[in-house]
Amino acid sequence: MTKVVAVVGSLNMDFVVTVPRLPAPGETVLGRDFQMIPGGKGANQACAAGKLGAGSVLTRMAGRVGYDLFADHLKASLAAAGVDVSAVHATKSQPTGVALIWVEESGQNAIVVASGANHAFHASEVEALRPVFRGAALALFQLETPLKTVEAALAVAREEGARTMLDPAPARPLPRELLERVDLLTPNESEACLLLGRAAGRLTSEEAPEVAAALLAMGPGAVILKLGELGCYFADAERSLASPGFAVEARDTTAAGDTFNGALAVALAEGMALERALEFANAAAALSVTRLGAQASIPTRAEVNAFLAARA
Question: Catalytic residue at 84?
């Protein structure tokens, strides 16, 4: 029986420019290599699940776009990855969301998002999403749509029996009532720090257990800290596990976290053991940072399998 992963979230068209360094306030920096690439955290995660779960997992996407050419490109990109986009609807009130992305030669980036139609995805529409969640092993969420919509959709997903995964990005404080509806919370370092009210910064492997424990106390069922090249750290009430990352030459970190979440959802839906699922997600994310762009950087299942086999 085919497993199902549901994704509720944003769809954006990304405008990506490579720059020698990120500009300071008021500064103009000459860039190069402009690309227009399908993105949005929700769509990225759906695309990752669609590509990596091809043949074993059906991915469904729910979100909002405008009535414009960007909408057509975004839906076509997801459909090409095998994603069911029947719950991606157009709204006349807003254009399709866009993201303006500057990427340094080192791979670091800065992103400005104009939410557009994503912001017109209202909580009142969530009840109609029950068919999207029905039969889903996992349901994925992010924070590029209104918080009330996310909160309502988390509740419906759990009512339909799906295990919920929240990527708390863009980073913002979250109420305990929302976090208690989350089975897997997957922040990166800066998002974890913001949730805990501490100064943002890189976390060491030694700091991960303390941070994960503090996040667990806020309500989610489990926490997976995404630590970049260090890999990730899992913790719930019963156990903890560090999963090391992979050393690669990074070109662009855009969508690495989204690739991780989509890959992890596929692995868990397929029934992989947790240790193997985390390794699989780390490998997919590592491959993604070696390429430019969001959905364009997401590897295929064959590429991830070959990557892992070469390092076995």
Answer: no
